[in-house]
Structure formats: structure tokens, C-alpha cells
Amino acid sequence: MLRSDATGPRPRFARRATLRRSLRLLGSFRFEQTDPARFYGGIAADTADLIADFYRDLTGRDLSGTVIVDVGGGPGYFADEFAAAGARYLPIEPDPTEMHAAGLTVAGAVRGSGMALPIRDDAVDICLSSNVAEHVPQPWVMADEMLRITKPGGLMVLSYTVWLGPFGGHETGPWHYLGGEFAARRYTRRTGKQPKNRFGRSLFAVTAADGLRWARETGGRARILATFPRYHPRWAWWVTRIPGVRELLVSNLVVVAAKPLG
Ligand SMILES: C[S@@+](CC[C@H](N)C(=O)[O-])C[C@H]1O[C@@H](n2cnc3c(N)ncnc32)[C@H](O)[C@@H]1O
């Protein structure tokens, strides 16, 4: 059984989680607004590696021929990477503006919400959601939905930005440490416009403890393969285990689950 802590057998992905990778990803974050192709290109390749590694750990197979649903996939920045790996990639996105944001055309893109996925039970090999749960009023309903549509024997990966981490406030940070509403109002005062990620409407205070609790409480519905901080080097994954500290330092929590067979 795979474990996220420092004592258990290592997930294959741990080998990639080097300091060099962390610095590369963190360096690309500043291009999110000014050069989205650069930012999303890097994160897409890294996400495809993460999914491929955990899928191989789970099944012994690569991604070719798999069906992957990406919940909150935006315009489909990850499409090319998963297509290159031979997967059928289907983004599900509720916001038509986001869907068309980058001029991408992803065949099979579906408009819908993560909280009520328009997909039947047990349908897909892999269900992924990256940086979406903090934008959803009921993130754990979304997580349950992701598990519902995943085939028995399939993989589910949920990754989200932790509220009290350095990026929790998005463009309103670091003022979110004084409260989300305060940070939103301050942003509007300073810039004359509402933040895109508006606290209480499109940005919510989701904690690391919330995700770990969901993982613990999935019971027989899922086998948790790993929980770890997405952008940290392997030697810093321990931060996930320390209450309080994890809220400040995890920044982005990944929960990797397998749906049991039968
Ligand atoms: C920060 S973007 C993340 C895009 C992409 N997944 C990534 O990792 O770069 C958040 C996305 O979540 C979408 N979103 C918001 N509410 C959602 C919901 N209820 N269900 C699914 N996606 C949602 C937004 O429209 C937006 O495209």
C-alpha cells in the first residue's frame, strides 16, 4: 500500500518531487496572468506526470486508452499533455467564459458543475480536479461526485489551494490572513474592480484539515493512496502530518484515491 508519510513505501511520483521541480513550478507562478501559456504549459506537463505515475502505481499501466475527466478544467490547458500520453481527455467546466478563455478547442469538453457531474456512475478511468475545490461552495460534494463517476479500480486525484497558505487569497493575498471579506474589499478599494476570485462567491476558505477529513471519512468508498503538498519536494511532505503547521505550509493539498473493485 502506498503511503504519503516518510516511512511508507514511496509513490513513484515521489522521485520527481525534487527541489529543482519545486523551484521551476514556483518560478512559473508569476506568469499566470501575463503569460498563461507558459504557466499552464509547465503545470500541465507536471500534472500529466503526476497522474501517469499514480495510475501506473495503481494498475501497472500507462495512460494510453484511458478516459480522464478533468473537473473545472477551464479552457483545457491540460488537453495536449494527456492526448500526447494517449488518453481521452474530457474537461468539465461550468463557466463558458473560462471554457473559451484561451482560444482552445477541446473535443468532448462538457459544460457542467463539479457538484453535479453530468456523467453516469463508474464511467471513467481517472477523475482529476486541479485548483478547483477552493472555488466551489460545496467542495466535498464535488469530491463525492468525482468518486462516483470513477470506475472501480480507477484513480481519483483532487488538488486544491489551502486557504491559510501563501496563495490562499489568490489576487487578494496576503490580506486574506486578516479575513477573506476584508481582503476582497481592500482589493476593490485599491483597484476599482472586484477580484475575479471573490471571497464567499468564487473563493472559499478550504483547509488542509477539510481534505484530510474527507479522505479519512470515505470509508469503503475509496482507498487513500497518498496525501501530500503538491509543489513541495519529497523531503518536505511531512508538513501534511502536522495540524496547524499544515494549514500555513502545505499551500496545495493533493488527495490521491483509488476506487475499490467490486
Ligand atoms: C483556477 S481555475 C483551475 C483551472 C485548471 N483546473 C488548472 O488547474 O489550472 C478554477 C476553475 O474552476 C472552475 N469552477 C468554478 N466552480 C466550479 C464548479 N462548481 N465545478 C467545476 N468547476 C468549477 C472555474 O470556472 C475555473 O475554470
From TrEMBL:
GO MF assignments: 2-polyprenyl-6-hydroxyphenol methylase activity; 3-demethylubiquinol 3-O-methyltransferase activity
UniProt keywords, alphabetically: Methyltransferase, Transferase
SUPFAM superfamilies from the UniProt entry: S-adenosyl-L-methionine-dependent methyltransferases
Domain Methyltransferase type: from-to ranges: 69-157
Organism expressing this protein natively: Nocardia africana
Single GO BP term: methylation
Claim: Transferase is one of the keywords in the record: yes
Keyword Methyltransferase on entry: yes
Protein name: Class I SAM-dependent methyltransferase
CDD domains according to UniProt: AdoMet_MTases
Protein EC: 2.1.1.222, 2.1.1.64
A Pfam family annotated for this UniProt entry: Methyltransf_11
Protein origin, superkingdom: Bacteria
InterPro entries the record matches: Methyltransf_11, SAM-dependent_MTases_sf
